[in-house]
Amino acid sequence: MRYEKNMSNILVVLAHPNLSASKLNKTLKEAIIDLPNVTLNDLYTSYPTWQIDAAHEQQMLVANDVIVLQFPFYWYSTPALLKEWQDKVLAWGFAFGTEGTALVGKKILVVTTTGGAQESYSETGQNKHTVEELLLPLRQTASLCGMIWQTPVVVHGATTISDEDLAKAASEYQKLLASL
Ligand SMILES: Cc1cc2nc3c(=O)[nH]c(=O)nc-3n(C[C@H](O)[C@H](O)[C@H](O)COP(=O)(O)O)c2cc1C
After folding, report:
1. Environment class of residue 148 by beta-carbon count within 10 Å: exposed (0-12), middle (13-18) or buried (19+)?
2. Phi, psi of 13 (to 5 degrees)
3. What is the pLDDT of residues 48-102, one digit of tens each?
4. What was the pLDDT predicted at 119?
5. Beta-bridge partner residues of 72
6. Which atom of ligand 1 is nearest to the CA of 77?
């Protein structure tokens, strides 16, 4: 199924604590799940007790060229299990440090969804910063690991987005992954 010539192997690390109640992330996930070069790693399903298998996660990272982190924006950051995943998996000697070069040269794409409208994520808006600015800790984490940061995909307005705009965002996400 995977490893077709000229296609990057893509690992989508999805972190949503209640995917069955999700609108945006569920729609985005459904748009990309059948792509032949995509492996989905649904963290909250894989680790209901939060005992992350770091060695297994590291193997999956090594086996893929593009790493996608997909999650709802929670307090201007990731849901907690994705932070736990970072803390356990991006270990010294693997992701950073003199011999920690496993992730060097891999592309990293953040795909996130917000409750706030796009206008609220600006200098003059309620959230004072763009989502891209607020993603700085993840961007610097990627940089320290030698990964190549891709322009994030942000789908705004969980309760206000139209079905049409959500379908468009899902289709663009699918096209983007197919093109990487
Ligand atoms: C604990 C928590 C924290 C949240 N923090 C933010 C936030 O900082 N900014 C924001 O725009 N929305 C925030 N939201 C709203 C979610 O981002 C929004 O409900 C989610 O992206 C919708 O995606 P879904 O349909 O896949 O659940 C938060 C929601 C929860 C439950």
Report:
1. middle
2. -90, 105
3. 999 999 999 999 999 999 999 999 999 999 999 999 999 999 999 999 999 999 9
4. 97
5. 113
6. 8
Positive or negative, the Cα torsion across 64, 68, 70, 74? positive
Residue labelled with tokens 């996930």: 29
Determine the Cα–Cα distance for residues 21 and 70; give it in Å rounded to an integer.
Answer: 16
CA of 161 to the centre of ligand 1 (A): 13
**What distance in Å separates the CA atoms of residue 31 and residue 170, rounded to the nearest whole number?**
6
With a cut of 70, say whether residue 1 has pLDDT above it.
Answer: no
Residues with CB under 6 A from ligand 1: 16, 22-25, 72-76, 113-116, 158
CA distance from start to end of the chain = 17
